[in-house]
Structure formats: structure tokens, C-alpha cells
């Protein structure tokens, strides 16, 4: 177990490693299909404690070529791991030339890690009935009917 105050380091991870970690540790989502970049956070002795997966924005309106979305963050509960990943995600996105980084939290999630990393709420999204439409049939993913909060990394 990590000791209180032990340093965490940001590290590169492959999409396969990130997906595996998400499968093991994420509370309510499966791993996304793809990514632009994935990051990890590890202890000094190299034990992976969390991952962040960044990709194209899910909402077409925000897929403008200069915006990236944090599509998943998962940790094993290590203190400050989420905030470290959100901060590193914004630094990585900026280094790659992106001007905006967004993410969402579900209704009932506090957003403490996002606030700790300097992110700001930019809007509320009402619960939607799901992604299934007559024009494009889709199965639910277990998170339909959930309101969300949209966040943006501070510039």
C-alpha cells in the first residue's frame, strides 16, 4: 500500500495497458475503443496506480480539431492519483497542440479531483434516454438516464 505523502510519477502507458486497468478499476464504464494518448501514474517503485485515456470529443460539436476529451480516468484509490492524471492530461494535450481539454462527470460525482487539478465546470447536461435512435440502433451501456457535468481544463 502506498504511504501517505509518497510521490507519484506520471508515466506513459499503452492503450492496451490503460484498457486493462479501466476494466479492473473503473466504477461504471468499460474502456473506450480508441485514444489519442494514454497516461499513467505510478509509485516510485513502478506500481501503476491509475490511468487516463484521452481521445477525440464524443460530442460532434466539440470535435473541432483543437479539442481533446479525457474519455476515462481510473485509479486504484490512491490519494491524489486522479488529480495528478487530470493535470498531466492537460499538460500533454497542450504539448500536442490542443487548445482545449474537456471531460464529464456523472450526476452524484463530486468533481473534487478535477477542481484539485484546476478544472472548471462549463455546463450541465440533462440525462438523455440513451444513444439508440431509429436511424442508428445501439444497445445501452448502463449509463443512460444519467445527468452529467461538463468540465474544461483551465487555460
Explain this structure.
By secondary structure, this protein is an alpha+beta fold. The protein has one domain: 3-Layer(aba) Sandwich (Aminopeptidase), CATH 3.40.630.30. The protein is built from 3 helices and 7 strands. The protein has a 7-stranded mixed sheet with strand order 1-2-3-4-5-7-6, sandwiched between helices. Strand 2 (37-43) and strand 3 form a beta hairpin. The longest helix has 15 residues, at 81-95.
Order of helices and strands: EHEEEHEHEE
What's the average pLDDT?
87
* Number of alpha- plus pi-helical segments: 3
* Low-pLDDT runs: none
Q: What structural class do the secondary elements suggest?
A: alpha+beta
Strand tally, please? 7
What is the terminal-to-terminal distance?
35 Å
Major sheet, described briefly? Answer: 7 strands, mixed
Tell me the strand percentage band: 25-35%
Shape: globular
What is the spatial order of strands in the main beta sheet?
A: 1-2-3-4-5-7-6
Number of domains: 1
The oligomeric state is single chain
Quick summary:
The chain has one domain (8-152): Gcn5-related N-acetyltransferase (GNAT) (Aminopeptidase, 3-Layer(aba) Sandwich), CATH 3.40.630. It is 20% helix and 30% strand. It is built from three helices and seven strands, in the order βαβββαβαββ.
